[in-house]
Amino acid sequence: MQNWINALSWLNLRFLLMGLWVTIYISVISVILSFIIGSILGIIRYSKIKWISKIVGFIIDIIRNVPLLLIIFFTYFGLPNFGLRPETIPAAIIAMTVFESSMIAEIVRSGIQSVSEGQMEGARSTGMSFVQALWHVVLPQAYKNMIPTIISQFVSLIKDTSLATIIVVPEMMQHAQVIYGQNANYILPMFAALAVLYFIVCFTLSVIGNAIGRHLS
Amino acid sequence: MKKKFWLISLMACIFLVSGCGKSTNNQSVLKDVQQANTITWGVKGDVKLFGLIDVHDGQQKGFDVDMAKHITKHILGPKGRAEFVTTTSQSRIPLLKNRNVDAVIATMTITPERKKVISFSKSYFDAGQSLLVPKNSKIKSTKDLSGKTVIGVVGANSVQNIKKVAPKAKIIELQDYAQAMNALKSKQGDALTTDNGILFGLAVQNPGYEVRGGTFTVEPYGVAVDKGQTAFAEAVDKAVLEMQHNGEYNRLIKKWFGDVPGFKYKELYRQ
């Protein structure tokens, strides 16, 4: 019991919350970037532009089928060979963005495909161009359907930031390791605290996502 | 058509990968750090007594860290700056090769295998591997380990050593010492093995456990630099020697290991 009290002292918790801040920082930037990049890639893949769509599809397939852990390793240890030497936090953001963009791209593509083709044809018959029809008619419907899937993808993004401990990003998981490095008996209290904090963040996001979904429908 | 596409993409990938073969440059790290007046050190962030981040201010603290600060002053002069990057047992060598850090001082044993890829200074600390067991355990020394499960830490040298002295022991490797300690407490293994300094640190926090069997290896810790950076390694050697002569070294030993019960820190003193 004393271990729990000592482990969850204000100093330790403050250090853990500093880590949580880094976790949220990495997550928010990666979410924004991967939402934009993923949407563009997904639309390109849907549009069937001769070569480009195929190449994009090929790259997405590669990234989706590689563990995120390897992508994190590659950005931190591999990129310096190409003359780019990111610090740990940017490396984590790059890795998360690359991985999540390809996940989002697939969600966007299938989201667009789930909108019935009649919508596109109808819009085109009124004289809209392909891009106009996509932008004004198809995409709004597609995104509405996609919200729950995208939100759950972002929830797993937040949880996946814990993988970045492997390159010693000072996020919540790594800070927990430092705290129980002081005393091995702090390990269980720290895991419990981690579970609670991750739950609060992820559950909040899900609730917000559901609210948006309800609001739109 | 489709086949051709795959072939081309495959070739593009091969080109990309082969293009990254240009590895380490031959620039002198010693000259670089003198120019920048800063040495960037890779240290541990979660190992008590050697390199542990202080939750008060986020700074790494420990024997390795203090050694690095002193060595920096000896090499660069009193105005030289030491910067610290937290590394793990797995990441410290790649970081050194990529020049994210200039040198690594992170409880790293000098071994022939490691010498193939990096260079070391002379030993700056002589640790020895030992065993941590519950007080009621029948294990007295490494001889009693056959058929037992021994817990070690991934990427550390100690696991290789235990395979040599107790080939019949089962081994589990965990991510860090705290996890290893908890595995021992939850009886997933019969003994925990690593360098004695770290084990004594763990025993302090866990009264039901003790270090046994003396040390069965010598683990000379060295400062690691990139392969071929001998000038830098020699500068480190000279700095450590100066610290031994003027008593700084012994003061640091006493500062970090003087309060560890059961640890004969005076044996580590150097003149």
CATH architecture of the largest domain in chain B: 3-Layer(aba) Sandwich
- What's the alpha carbon Rg of chain B, rounded to whole Å? 21 Å
Pick out the low-confidence regions of chain B.
13-24
Total domains of chain B: 2
CATH superfamily of the largest domain in chain B: Periplasmic binding protein-like II
CATH overall fold name of chain A = MetI-like fold
Largest interface: A-B, 32 and 38 residues
Any idea how many domains of chain A?
Answer: 1
Average pLDDT of chain B works out at 86
Query: How many E-type strands of chain B?
Result: 13
Oligomer description: heterodimer
CATH C-level of chain A:
Mainly Alpha
**CATH superfamily placement of chain A:** MetI-like
Order of helices and strands of chain A: HHHHHHHHH
Task: Indicate the percent of residues in helices of chain A.
Answer: over 70%
Shape assignment of chain A:
elongated
Number of helices of chain B: 10
Describe the largest sheet of chain B: 5 strands, mixed
Q: Would you count the extended β strands of chain A for me? A: 0
Record the SSE blueprint.
The complex is a heterodimer of chains A (217) and B (271).
Chain A: H1 2-7, H2 10-47, H3 50-64, H4 68-78, H5 88-114, H6 117-125, H7 130-160, H8 172-182, H9 187-216
Helix pairs in contact in A: 2-3, 2-5, 2-8, 3-5, 4-5, 5-7, 6-7, 7-9, 8-9
Chain B: H1 2-19, H2 29-36, E1 38-44, E2 46-47, E3 51-53, E4 60-61, H3 63-76, E5 81-87, H4 92-97, E6 103-104, H5 112-115, E7 118-127, E8 129-134, E9 149-153, H6 158-165, E10 170-174, H7 177-185, E11 191-195, H8 196-205, E12 209-212, E13 219-226, H9 230-245, H10 248-257
Parallel strand pairs in B: 1-5, 1-6, 9-10, 9-11
Antiparallel strand pairs in B: 2-3, 3-4, 7-13, 8-11, 8-12
Helix pairs in contact in B: 3-9, 3-10
